[in-house]
Amino acid sequence: MSLDFDTIRKLPWPTIELYQQLDSTNDRALELARDPTTEAPGLVVTREQTHGRGQQGRSWQSTQQSLTFSWFHQMNADARLSIAPGLIPIAAGLCVLDALGSLLPELSESMTLKWPNDVLIYGRKVSGILVESVPLQTSRRVVVGIGVNVNQTMKTMASFVQEPNSLIATSLIAERTRKSNSSEYTNISGNTPNRPQLPIDLTTVLTKIVSRLGASFADQDRSLAGSDEIAARAFSRFSYLNEKIEILGANNEISVGVVESILPDGGLVLRTDEGGQSGKHTVYSGSIRRLDG
Length: 293
Fold this sequence. Notes:
This protein is 26% helix and 30% strand. The protein is of the alpha+beta class. The strands form 2 sheets. A 7-stranded mixed beta sheet has the order 1-2-3-7-6-5-4, sandwiched between helices. Strands 11-10-9-8-12 form a 5-stranded antiparallel beta sheet. The radius of gyration is 19 Å and the shape is globular.
C-alpha cells in the first residue's frame, strides 16, 4: 500500500518534503537542518531511497514496500535541559518500538531494542535508526533517519545481501504471517505463507512513529529523572538481557560481558569477568553480537 502524500502533508510539522525517489533522506534532512531559516521540526519522506546510509557506514536497502524517512528537531540551547546525545538514538528506538507495538499488539512482546539503534522482532531486524547532529550558532539540531521493513515478503527478505555479522532481516508483514501461521515459527525459509496477509498501510506506520517522536522530543526540559526513565525502559526492552555479548568498538576494540544497565547518557555498562577478575566497563558506541554459550 503506497504512501499517501496528501495525508502526510497534513502532519503538524512546519517543514515537510515528499519525494518519489531520493538518494538519502538523511542527507536531505541534514541540508535543511543546517539552514537556520528552515523551521523545525521537519520531515523528509521518500517512496524509494537509492543510497541510504545506516550505522557505521552500512547501507540500508529500501523498496516501495518499506518505509524510509528522516525527522529533524531543534534541541534545547541549554545542554543541561536537553536529552544527552548518546541517549537520542535509544529514545528514538523506543518511539519506533512503541509505535510498531501499538500497530501490531500480537507482536509487541517480541519486539526488543538492540542498543543503540535497531528494533528487532524475535531477534530479526525490522527497523534501523541513524542519528546525526547539526551544530548551529546557539543550539543544535538532530536528524533522526528511520527505515522500517513493512510489506516485504520472506522471499524478498531472503534475497537481501547480508553483510558480515549482520542480523537477519525481517518485515512487519513477514512476522505477522509467521505469527498467524504457526506458533513455532517454522515458516522462515521463504516458503509461500499458508494464509496471505493484507498489506500494512505505510502511511499509518509513518504517522504513528512521527507522532511518538514528536511527543517524546517536544518536552525539551528533561530532568535527569526523565533521562533515567528512558534508560531504564531501554534496558527493560534490551535484546540480549542476561546474555553474554561482544561489542566491536572504535579501533577494533573488543569488549565482552553481560549488560548490567544503560546509563542516562546512553552508555552501556558491561559486567566483565576477565582472568577471574570481575569488573565493569562502559561502552558508548559499537556493534553488538550475541555470543553462544
